[in-house]
Design brief:
By secondary structure, the protein is mostly helical. The protein has seven helices and three strands, in the order H-E-H-H-H-E-E-H-H-H. The protein is 39% helix and 8% strand.
Length: 119
């Protein structure tokens, strides 16, 4: 059986070579700190147009292409605008309601003869 010689993958020496250097999703996650599903879920990669290279059964990413993608798809955050102080209402607070009569008091007023046996 012939002996197979494998070479370790070499790091790119120039920026131009960096675009040709592809890494796995795990390498990208470790390097960027971005969520795992961004790189492992095909639906998310398609929806967000994450640059990748699909090889027979595996997916590889170029760090240079990912950096450019992130720069083109990032939005600059802005701090929320401070809210204006609330102006006090010019109308006075409504007075609390007076005492509400109980049902038997209302009934007594409606039909005094029936409830007042002393009259």
């Amino acid at each position: 059986m012939p002996k197979v010689v494998t070479r370790p993958q070499e790091q790119p020496e120039t920026e131009e070579d960096a675009g040709a250097f592809y890494v796995t999703a795990q390498d990208v996650i470790e390097a960027t700190g971005l969520p795992k599903h961004w790189f492992t879920t095909p639906e998310y990669r398609a929806r967000k147009q994450v640059p990748h290279l699909a090889l027979v059964g595996s997916v590889r990413f170029s760090l240079q292409a990912l950096w450019e993608w992130e720069q083109n798809h990032s939005t600059v955050g802005r701090p929320p605008e401070p809210k204006a102080p609330r102006q006090p209402d010019t109308e006075p607070e409504p007075a609390p309601p007076s005492r509400v009569p109980l049902w038997h008091e209302l009934a007594r007023e409606l039909d005094r003869e029936q409830f007042d046996s002393t009259s």
